[in-house]
Amino acid sequence: SYIARAAFHNHQIQFRDQFYFLLDKYVPRCSPLELIESAGWPRYDAVFEIDWENHINKANDILQAMQTVHDGFVQATRRIDVPYMVLTEGIVSSAGVKYMPTFIATLQLFVKDSTEYKSHICEMTFPELNARCVVLSEVMGLENLKSTDNTDGVKIKHYQLKSFAVLFSSFKKVTWLDADCIPIHYPATLLTTDPFKSTGLGAPGEGDKDTFIQAAAAVGKKFYTASKKFADLGRQRYEGNDHDIIHVVMLQADPGVDYKLTQQGKWQVKDTSVAAAPRAFFIYANIVKFNPGEKKLLED
């Protein structure tokens, strides 16, 4: 209703102002992180502990400073409420112009600023599908905000979009869907089943969403990660050799099926004979990007 949306909008403005204040108050007072070589691509393992290598230059010199401000920020954020519309749930994602055509089933699609907004898709196509575009910079009040240190103003970009899209969505319960993650089944069903119902957070495996799991661990929140490793899909490098595959996409398991098995003590990743492998739920196209409408967008 109009009244409910107006109340949500006012609450969102209050939250935004409080959140900005805390971000500024608890900014790390240390040198930026410097990476030593590449951290590589360590694979997630639900069975065995992995020894993580440090790839941050002079990590001990900045650890305490970052830990102090992070602890202060976490404690302060516990005293502010994230706004949402009651009894709402849905899919949230963020995408630039190139990836919009792949998201006709998304309910709230965040674009970083007005330059990424496509009126034809956002105003004609999406409403027919009960979906809408949200310009993040407008919601966050950044369109005309200038920084004293940056004449171009405050910028939210790249992987930062994910966290802010979830924060500024109007949904109480959110299924986050990456721009390059293609659901095989309807993803909203994940919000009505375990492990989401019992933990409040469930991830289907490796991918960029791992950052949410680490954040939940840092603040002591419950979560569940699918034990089943993702499967590499691609093509044979040499004909007849199934062991040398050129990776193209990741196939991620259904966290609901995986959760049911592990709750019964059936760890398929330890012993494949205890049960059939969980069905595939997402295709994560981390190498080859799928965009059927790129030519049309360029013409527009």
Automatic annotation (TrEMBL):
Location in the cell reads: Golgi apparatus membrane
The record's section on InterPro entries has:
Alpha_mannosyltransferase, Nucleotide-diphossugar_trans
Keyword presence, Transferase: yes
Gene Ontology molecular function: any one = alpha-1,2-mannosyltransferase activity
Query: Where mainly located?
Result: Golgi
Q: Which domain of life is it from?
A: Eukaryota
Its pathway, per UniProt, is:
Protein modification; protein glycosylation
Q: Which UniProt keywords apply?
A: Golgi apparatus, Membrane, Signal-anchor, Transferase, Transmembrane, Transmembrane helix
State the Pfam families in the record: Mannosyl_trans3
Biological process (GO) annotations?
A: mannan biosynthetic process
Q: What is this protein called?
A: Nucleotide-diphospho-sugar transferase domain-containing protein
Homology family: Belongs to the MNN1/MNT family.
Q: Which SUPFAM superfamilies match?
A: Nucleotide-diphospho-sugar transferases (SSF53448)
